[in-house]
Amino acid sequence: MYFTNLLKILDKKGKGWRQYTVILLDGAPYHTSDVMMEFFKEYQVPVMFTGPHSYDASPIELFFAAFKSKDVNPEKLSTGKK
After folding, report:
1. N or C terminus of the chain: which is more exposed, having fewer CB within 10 Å?
2. Are 50 and 31 in contact (CB under 8 A)?
3. For position 62, what pLDDT does the model report?
4. What contacts 48, CB < 8 A, 6 or more positions away?
5. Alpha-carbon distance values, 30 to 20, 33, 35, 67 (Å)
6. What is the pLDDT of residue 71?
7. Predicted confidence (pLDDT) at residue 21 exceeds the cutoff of 70
8. Between these two residues, 2 and 66, which has the higher pLDDT value?
9. Does 81 score more than 90 pLDDT?
10. In the chain, what is the straight-line distance between the N-terminal and C-terminal CA atoms, in Å?
11. Average pLDDT of 25-44?
């Protein structure tokens, strides 16, 4: 549903967005599932996947880390996987 709404917004901004935009995603199973891959193909969504554990290739991860540790976690509880 998120990607459907995102595509509607991008299409409103300009139909040619696919020519100069790439959606960068991590390799999470919900991003690489058969259902999502078919969706990307059907709607001609240009996607690129980062490699495993390649946080340096995705600067947004730095934002998420800061956000999780400060803004939504004032008690500084562990947010990592164990």
Report:
1. C
2. no
3. 77
4. 22, 23, 24, 25
5. 25, 5, 9, 22
6. 62
7. yes
8. 2
9. no
10. 30
11. 92
- SS3 for 61? helix
Tell me the two tokens of residue 6: 């995102």
d(CA 41, CA 24): 15
pLDDT value of residue 82: 53
- The two tokens of residue 68 are 């999780």
Separation CA 21–CA 40 (nearest Å)? 13
Report which of residues 21 and 26 the model is more confident about.
Answer: 21
Q: Choose among 25, 7, 26: nearest CA to 17.
A: 7
The candidate with the shortest Cα–Cα distance to 24, out of 44, 4, 46, is 46
Alpha helices in 19-74 (DSSP H): 29-32, 34-42, 60-66
58, 30 in Cβ contact below 8 A? no
